[in-house]
Amino acid sequence: MKIPLGTRSYERYPYTVTRIKVMKSLLLKKADYLKMSAMGYHEIAKTLEEGQYHEDVAKLAGRYAGVELLERALTENFARTLNKMMFIAHKKEVKELIETYTCKWVFSNLKLLMKQRMNMIAEQELEKLLISVEPLDATMIHELQKAPLPVLTKKVSMLSGIPERTVRTWCEQKQFLEMENGLDKAYYEKLKTFAKSKKLANRDPLKQFFIDSIALLNIKTILRSKAKQATSKKIHASLIALDETHDLEERLIAAPDINSALFQLKKTKWKVIGDDRIAKDLSMLETRSEEFLYQYGFTLLHRKPLSVAPIFGFMLLKEIELRNLRFFIHAKSLGLEKLYIEQNIIGG
Question: Which terminus in the chain has less CB density within 10 A, N or C?
Fold first, then answer.
């Protein structure tokens, strides 16, 4: 079929997709989460140790124990999976696609390293959250933890595209919020540039995913700003310009309060985020956003079997699994109620 001028599509990737299918078969399913919700902490730990996380638990068991061992094993497994995906992506365009999305974790690591340099997070806590993916592998991360400030700021600047002077100012003046917002915007601008540079067809599911990822960030920013009663001018300044969702964003900004903004979302494809509970508990915003991503991942996983869509869908669902298991481990170790746990599991 001839591709219209100005667009392109990805091909078929039988080798990579076949390898992904094997990895996909190991993803936890709804039935697994239901079983785990009835288990105690030690039963869950045993289930993970005897299942797909065995290699990661065994590797770290000599240095850590209990909740910390499981947290680190989950992180290790996730990083290993992402790096493996980049390795088995034989075609340049697929590797580039995977690297673009996994940059999310590179930017997350940069935020954590900067946070540590500002003395806002302990080293032990930091190491549990780091996801060592290429090009920011474990060796480089450890070097940057101990590196002089000029070395760290230069590396952050190189990987993020943010001027080195700006990065240094964040660190020296401990501008934590400016740093987080700046790195978030840099990552999502990277997604936006990628989607445009590939000139994918407007209805291409991957192009739509990248656009929706940016729109989701803007929606979350607007809702959080509404909760703080920020001015329209301040809200506009914090958004990433996006023509595709400009009208929706303007309606949300014009809404008199967060409840009205949530009501606006109920009428759109973002209705899962239009949850009234968010007005009283902003932590629900992240949960509902992750639910939206889960639905996206599930849809992509079941599109054209040999295309790039299932590869990308698997990455999203693996990310949700990491989130769910982290939540399970903490909830069970704290003895939280089964109903509360079930309500907060994505895709469960």
Answer: N
Q: Shortest CA distance to 164 belongs to which of 152, 174, 147, 173?
A: 152
Distance CA 166, CA 153 (A): 9
The Cβ of residue 151 has, within 10 Å, a number of other Cβ atoms equal to: 12
One-character DSSP codes across 212-236 = HHHHHHHHHHHHHHHHTT--HHHHH
Q: In which region does residue 239 sit, left (phi positive, over 0), alpha (psi from -120 to 50) or beta (all else)?
A: beta
CA distance 183 to 167: 10
Q: Which residues neighbour 204 within 8 Å (Cβ) at sequence distance 6 or greater? A: 7, 9
Token output for 116: 């540590």
C-alpha to C-alpha distance for 57 and 76, rounded to whole angstroms: 9
Instruction: Say if CB 219 and CB 268 are below 8 A apart.
Output: no
* Helix extents (H) in the chain: 14-24, 30-37, 41-50, 54-60, 66-88, 92-117, 123-129, 138-146, 149-160, 164-172, 176-197, 205-227, 232-237, 246-254, 258-266, 283-301, 309-333, 338-343
- Cβ atoms of 121 and 115 within 8 Å: the answer is yes
State how far the Cα of 45 lies from the Cα of 43, in Å rounded to an integer.
5
Q: Is the pTM of this model over 0.85?
A: no
pLDDT in tens, 155-208: 999 999 999 999 999 999 999 888 988 999 899 888 888 877 766 677 777 778
